[in-house]
Every structure is written in C-alpha cells, then in structure tokens.
Fold each of these.
Amino acid sequence: MKLDVPLLKLPRQYCAETLAAEVLALPRSAWIAHPGKLAGNDAVPLITPGGVVTNGFAGPMEPTESLLACPYIMEIMADLGAVWGRSRLMGLAPASDVPEHVDVGYYWRTHLRLHIPVITNPGVEFTCDGQTEHMKAGECWAFDSFCLHNVRNRGTEKRIHLVLDTVGGENLWDMMLETRRAERQELPLKFIEPGRTPIDTLAYERINTPEIMSAWEVRCHVDFLVRQAPQTVTLSPITDLLDRFLVAWAAAWAQYGASHNGLYLYRRLLADIRVNLKHVGADRILLHNAVPLDRSLN
C-alpha cells in the first residue's frame, strides 16, 4: 500500500520478552522455507486462507495453529484494530539479506504491511526508499512497500519479525494519522501489557481477491499507477490507450459484471491493451520506484 513516507513508527511498545517467549516455544516444524527460496529466509504462517499452512494470498483468512499458540500476538493484533490478511513470523539468518525489491501486484496494492521485531540485533537494518532504520524489539513500524526496500542481518543471531498484512481499519488509521500529524516529534509510546487486551474482536479477511475486477476498481488502480509515472509528453499516448481500455472494460462490466459469460471479452481486452502498450513503449516508462509502468499494470 502506498504511504506518504517510506517508514512510519507507530506509538506502541509491545513486550519483547513475552513475544520472544511465545515465538521460541513454537516447534521447529512450524517454520517453512521462503516461497521465493531466498537463502536464510524462512517463516511461520500465522494467518492463511483456511488457516492451513500455505503461502497463499487469496481466500477467507483464518488463524493457524501457530497463531492460536501465541495469545500475546493475538492481543497485539486486537490492539492495532484492523482486519487481518496473510500474516507471518519471518526469519532472517545471520549474514543473510532480503535483496532490494518493490512489492508489485494486486495484493500489495491493496494491503499495508506492519513489522514488529521479536528477536533482533544491532546488525539488522531495514532500508526503504533510502531511509535506513534499526527496528528495536517490540516496536511497531509501517512501511511503503511500493518503494524499493531491502533488509540485511549483519549480526550473529537470527532475526525474527512479526509481519502483519492488512487492508486497514479505523483504529489503525487513526494511529497512523496521529503519528503523521506529530511530524518530527516522536509520540510517547503506549506499552501494551500482556494479558490485558481482549481478543474476541479479532477480524480476518473474508473477501480479498476478486475474480473479475469491477470497472471502478480497474480505473482506481490504473489512475494510481499513472500518477506514479513521470508526467512527460511520452506518457500521453499511453494514457490515451488506457482511457480507451477503461471505457471498454466499463462497457463489458455493464453487460456481464462478474459473470463467466464475459470472460472471453475481458481476456481479449487485456490481451489487446498489453500489445498496444508495448507498441507505445510503456515498458520504457519507469515509475518513481524504478518499476516499468507496463509491469505494474500487469
């Protein structure tokens, strides 16, 4: 999700000792390999489609057995007050890293990611859009995943972060807004004592990835990406093509909606716009994060 700052420290302090105790009590079998096979990277799924051990993004979300074994993590989620999507514990071995990248795709466009360090060391650095921070245990950070970012662990022990994905929520939004309004003045941290936050209000995603996007949602995403592109004369033929595509998609949606009867038309529109964008050089238009416009649109 796009933010107006690379990294945002929220006014919360969670109990690092309780977090570490819960996480270290999980069996070794709870840890699975990184889906991208990145060396030194592993994870414990906490919220997944159906609550099963998977790296999937789409479908009704449920807690896994690992999350149910970590009541304080559930209290943290309740305190933040959001609707939760795929979430994990993410491990990074000593002398390992997550290479610089941008999270591009439907899921990342619609979700905010929070990092809460559980076990860390001074050699762990998180860099986003040129800003580098060492996140301390128990802190809570939001970051702009649409910017270039990377993580390095130069220490001698494994780093473990609680990584929560969400489309948001009123309480979390208010907390982020309060932090932004404070600007350079760091807000006092509210310590969330273990065992004091009810978890019966926890909410999980039920609807997240539409099979066919509505005309309004397609326009929302396209307009967002065009705003991230340099506003030069070379963008004009691209926006003309995209406007024509959006009108055609709206016409198809008015006729078929999400019915499979319209799949042939939706697929033709997508195939045509991909070819047309290539002809006018959309792959040569780089967004502010150095990702080509056509890749982001895809």
Amino acid sequence: RKTDLIVGDSPAIRQVLSALDRLAPATTPVLITGESGVGKELVARSLHFSGPRAPGPFVAINCAAIPEPLIEAELFGYRRGAFTGAVQPRPGAIEAAHRGTLFLDEIGEMPAEMQVKLLRVLETGEVQRIGASEGKQIDFRLVSATNRDLEQAVRDGRFRADLYYRVHVYPLRVPPLRERTEDIPRLVHHYLAVIAARERRPVPR
C-alpha cells in the first residue's frame, strides 16, 4: 500500500498521496519528476501497489544505468540465436510487465533510437523481441521518472516531442526534503525502527 512506502504528513506529501489516490485506479501514463534522491521509484511502486494492477508485476528499468548497446535487449528481449550469445530466448522488461506496471527511471536518458521503438509500443500495444518475425500484444501501465527538464530536452532535440506527450499524460512532482522539513522527525523514527528491526535491537529514542 502507498501508506507503507511513503512516510510523511506535510502538505507537500499529502498532495502527492492525494494524487496517488486519483491515479492508482487508472491506466493513465504518469511522469514522476523531481531531483535525484527524492524517492521517485517509491512513488511509482506506491502507484502500482495501490491500484488494480497490484497482483501483477512491477518491472523497473533505469535507462541511465544500462549501456546503450544493451538497452534494446533489456527492454524488448530476444529470441534464441538473435545475436552472438543469445543461446536462450529471453523476454524483455516490457513483456515481463504484462498485466502490471513498467517503470522507466531516468527516461530522459533513453537513446533516440529506443525512443522511436518505445513510441511504437505505446501506439500499438505490441512488443517484438529482437530477431522475432512477429510481435506480441502486451497490457502494461507505463510510469516514467526523470530529474531532467524534458520540455527543454524536446526543444533541444534530445527527446522526441511525440514520445513526450505519450509519457507526460499526468505529471507528478515529488518535493525534496528541504520543502517538507516537518517530515524529518517521522522519517528519522521510521528509519531508526527499520535499522533496529534489522539489528534485532530496541528502537532508540
């Protein structure tokens, strides 16, 4: 549940929780924005586990952490023999997210060629493994995140405008801690409890 993942009671966090209440039942693509370290993946997980897709998979891919030559295989998968080393067929992240949620972290770092291919998946609902001759219909909800200004990236030609409008259906900003300092005591207590449980010790005060 979202209340298990997001700690805080500040107006800024209540606004995030209110948005999650509205968005969780829908299939609308959501773009989570915010600085590095604000907990964008926690918000994405909350969105997934608060909605009807909770029984399905939550598949997370960090677009900035995967080398460009490998990202297509990670997203789309491949059939046996598609390239050297492909000794066994493998589903990609999109296929693995069937009936669940695909979370693309740092989507602004996605290479231009992959942007085109992702756009086609969003338009057709079909994914085709590398080396396959036909595609497969996949039902997934897309949740993306970025710490970049995607509108500026579109203006600079680094991010496709048509993909931007596909992923930016509902923007959700996660505020940094400096904008919700009243949440610090609750966060401190929460993490002390987590660490104490892990170390099998009483919760310190």
Amino acid sequence: MGTLIKNGTVVRADSSQKMDVLIEGETIAKVGAALDDIGHSVVEATGLLVMPGGVDMHTHLDMPFGCTNSADDYTTGTQAAAVGGTTTIIDFALQLQGQTMRQTLDTWLKKSHGKACVDFSLHMAVTDLGPGDGSQGLHEMEEMVAEGITSFKLFMAYPGFLMVDDGLMFKLMQKAAKLNALCCIHAENGSAIDIVVAQMLAEGKTEPHFHALSRSTKSEAEATHRAIALADMVGATVYIVHLSNQEALGELEHMRRCGAKALAETCPHYLVLSLEEHMPGKSWEEAKFVFTPPLREKKHQESLWAALADGSLSVVSSDHAPFRLADQKSLGRHNFSKIPNGGPGIENRLQILWHFGVNAGHIAPEKFVELCCTAPARIFGMPQKGVIAEGKDADILLWGPSANYTILAATQRMAMDYSMFEGWKVKGNAAKVFSRGELVVDNTTQPGKFLGATGRGRFLKREANAGGL
C-alpha cells in the first residue's frame, strides 16, 4: 500500500502537467495521469501544485560568530525549513584556524546527530590548510570528497577570523579542479572593508546603518572578478554565494562570456529588501538587517530578477544565519562591527520567491522549481533530490498557489524574536510536505507544526560533479 497524490499539477523545471504521483516507501514509484488508487491511501491535491521539496544549499545552523552561536540548531532550523516547504539543506561546517577539516567535520556531525529533521549535507568552509605547504589540508580535501563533502567554501572577508589569502585560495582551487569539487566563494574585499570600518568607527559612526555603507558594491564586484579569475587559471568551477548587486553580477556575466566556469546564487532579502526602505539610519532596530553582503539600494533588484529569469543566477538560497535581536544582535549595540552578521530566512524563502517572483510575473512556476529545488540538487551532486520522477526520493511539496499567509515572528517556527518580513501578506504557501514519503508538515490542518520525529533527517553523501558544468 502506497500514498497516491491525486489530481494535482506536477510542476517540474521544464514543464507542468496534471498528473498523479504514487509514493511507495521512501521513493516515488510512479508519475502519470489517472493512476489507479485501489489499495492506496489517497491525498487529494485538486487546486494544488505538486513540486519537489525545496533544496536550500546555504544555511548556518548552530554556527559560532564572535561570542555567540546562531539561534537555530539542527532541530529548530530543519523543522522551520520543512514548515516552509524545504526538505533538504546543505549547511556549512566552519573550520576554525588551527583546526583540521576532520576535526571540523566531527564537530558538525555531533551538532546534527539526533537533531536533524530533514535530510542534510555539509560544505566544508576552509580557513586553514595546515602547516608548511598546506599538503595536509589538500590531502584532507581528498578525504572529504570520498566521504561525500564535495564543495569547499572560502571567505574573502572577515580578516583574522575566516578570510583566506589569494595563495591559499589558489592552492585549494587547484586541488578542487583535480577532484571535480566545487569552490563556494564569499566574495567581498575584506582587507579594504576593514579599513573603511575602522575609519567609520573612529568618526563615531557606530549605528547599524553604517554596516551597510562600509561594504560597497565595488568591494563585492572586485572580489567576484578576482575569485572567478583565479579559478579560471586552474580550470576550477566556482560558485559565488549570496550575490547582491548588479556590479558583481556584471563581473560574473563577463567572466562567463570569457569561458570561466562560474555559477552564482542570490537570496530573497536582496530581491525584496532595500537600503533606502529598511536601513535608512534612523533606529537600532535596523540591526535586524545586518548581514553580509549588506542590503543594497533598490535599483539593484531589477537586475537580479532579470538574472534569475535568464539563468545568469542559478539558485535562490536563504543564507539562513539567525541571531536574535534582544540578546545577540545587541552585542553590537554601540559598535556595528560587533553585531552578529546574518538574518533568518529558511522558513520564508519559498513564500517570498513565489509571491514577489511568480505572482509579480518575474519568473514562471517552472523557473521557481528550477531555482529552489532542481538546480541546487543538480549543482551540488544530489541526483535523488529536486525532481518529481520515478525512482527519486519522495520529497514532495504540495503548494497552495492561492493560499494567503501573513508572516509573523509570533507564529514562525524559527527560534527567533523577529522576522525580516514582519507583517507581510503573501499569496502562496506550503500545504503539505513529504520527506522521503513521510508526511512531516500539514499546514492545512496543523499550521506551523512539524509532524515527524526529531532526528529523522539523514546525512547525504554528495557526488563530485563540479557544479554540473
């Protein structure tokens, strides 16, 4: 006996068609028109869209930043993901300087053990290749790829904490090219930014607003160009995370025209929030929007939407890095450089992109599936995820395109005391969510509640496919 989803419209990255979907065990057994329901439990999906569960490849759960950790651990974070329609995440294992990658991996597997509620994988964020010529770290990269960690993140920002120099980045890219692994890059010129930050603080400019002003679009564009150029020198594939503005986008597009193997993502907050509207420099509450890269002027949004539509940008991720306003962001009350960087978005990613993307005519439903489900699974080597097809994992999202929802901190699943989208009314929301065939969310009868067992999520070993290019 299986579960038959009947009378819904199956939306794939390349087509939409009214079809039924049969789940048997943890996989999709059959997709077709008017499937026989005899002996199966039937889920009625009339008026609903049947999509792959969302894949969010950029999250920071239980992440150390300064003297605190991000507010969502693997339980609250993955439950919030599921409530919003996401059934797979890729989190960042953050190597601290002086640690080995093995120590880092062990730390993050302990953080997730018995807590993850949907399937997950890890990127390795590298800050240290070890002593001497770095051969120890380069050998560890081979071990990581063998264990299914096939993407490596490098920070070009946060000097003294996370930032790597061009030499380390070049060595890692050389090795990644040989391993067919993917290099994920936080592209900002951290050295230049640090000088600007110090100058602002010396002038008494301490409010959250100045965080955004200290990190210019040009610093992101320069680093984007440099990262792609270095990768191109060794034939590596590079993936620029959280691209925020049209100047950085221009560098990406230019380098791709020159033959570089480069991909990039953006995030919902860069598409719908702006410096003028949300960080005008009037109150401490603007600390809610301190993340990096920072909010940009509204003029950049049109270019980002166009790039999503034409494929220049490949993925929309959440960059979920939640820090509470009352007791975490407040660490930088009198110095914006001490405000933990990040915002909560894992629960609202699909709502925001559907309402402001699909409903507003920027992207089609099929492109929505491509950006949020299919492309991240393909780029990051998870062939069982991101597609409604026979033999794939039964990670299925029933989406209500006409469902009205108001985003409120008081009702969200994330362990936060605010929402970046507080009070926003959106049209389009997750109705039911299946993770490997199990109904884990039913927002039609028990809104905002996770129905599965804590710790049911599995670690996914990913293929080394260099971004699918």
